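Methods — Computational structure assignment.
A single polypeptide chain was analysed. Its primary sequence is given first, followed by the predicted tertiary structure written as structure tokens.
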Amino acid sequence: MPKPILVVLPSYNEKENIVALMEAILNLGSDYSVCVVDDSSPDQTFEIVRAAITEKNWQERAHLIVRSKKDGRGGAVREGFEWGYKSDKHFEVFIEMDCDFSHRPLAIPTGVYLLQNGADVALGCRYPNGKIEGWPVKRHVLSFFANTLARTLIDHKIYDYTNGFRFYSRRAVEELLKHTQKHRGYIYLSESLSQLLKAKMKVASFPIHFVNRERGVSNTSLSEVKSAFLGIFGIAWHHRFSKK
């Protein structure tokens, strides 16, 4: 019998993408459910989701969480995981991905397969063998330096610390929820992965084709990029020297 799978979608100003993405995920199979966590999007994304759940009869397979303010991608994913972990559906596979189709829904079964074959965590990776489409040169440079720094400071066996297309076993999510979140936004990707590595979780990866935002507008700010670079040093220190 297939294990129930929950895909958590952290949403902010994604009304152009969200319903089509939800539909693409739910069409993968009856074992899939979706949890949209929206940070009170100014474009009323949450209202679009709420209407779609009713109109398309997704009540049994789709859940909406609306947070009171924009509080970062990391916290949104974590809140979705907390809901799913406590759900009476007893989800066995948890997935996080972006809402803009930069992560392809058809790649989801590959990550699920890796979990079903012994991995605690599976990473959809752009490096070293994936493909990136549509990035400007400065984005390539920023990503290269961010991941090189993380590999140097944390664990060189991981090539892509900054991509949010990830798959977790129930055991891995339980481990993540034991820890208090220290960093907001995309830097939580490095923080959470560090925690799982420190807990000796088995991490697998597979290459993906990453397409830069087919629709919508990027919501990653320069201040968040700066915070991420500063935060990685604290994460690395904790990873190497903390006993917890």
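Note: Strands lie at 5-11, 32-38, 62-66, 93-96, 121-125, 131-133, 166-169, 203-207, 209-211.
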